[in-house]
Amino acid sequence: MERLVIALIALLGGLVAALVGWLDSKEAFDARKFGGSAVRSLIAGIVFAVGYHLSGAVSTLDLFYAFLGGAGVDVLGNRIAGKLGNGSFPLSQNTESTTQDDPQEPKES
Predict the structure, then answer these.
(1) What is the span of the domain harbouring residue 60?
(2) Which segments cross the bilayer (predicted)?
(3) Which residues contact 71 (CB under 8 A, 6 or more apart)?
(4) For 3-10, what is the mean pLDDT?
(5) Is a pLDDT exceeding 60 seen at residue 42?
(6) When comparing pLDDT for 19 and 108, which is higher?
């Protein structure tokens, strides 16, 4: 039963992070983005449940860690997905290179 509670708490953490992110963005609700967050936090919940099954008893502090872990996995997943989506992962598409032959002009502020 403890494993189920840990998984649900991590899932709840990811869903809360997704909901807060959506409220902060002021965009229309996109079920596809919210579904991706749910899947990522579900995976985090499974990982936490397996990890705590191997480690032993679960305390209240462990539930808090699972909540934060689910939220953190969702936030990191969104950042990585954003980088993959715009083509700038792992390197930016800045093709301008500065060489020693062409020094940069100082910018006035």
Answers:
(1) 2-85
(2) 42-68
(3) 13, 14, 16, 17, 41
(4) 85
(5) yes
(6) 19
Residue 94 lies in a domain: no
User: How many folded domains does the chain comprise?
Assistant: 1
The answer as to whether 101 is a domain residue is no
Residue 14 lies in a domain: yes
**pLDDT score recorded for residue 8:** 87
Coil, strand or helix: which one is 15? helix
pLDDT in tens, 57-66: 777 887 888 8
Nearest alpha carbon to residue 78 among 45, 48, 46, 35: 35
Decide if 31 is inside a domain. yes
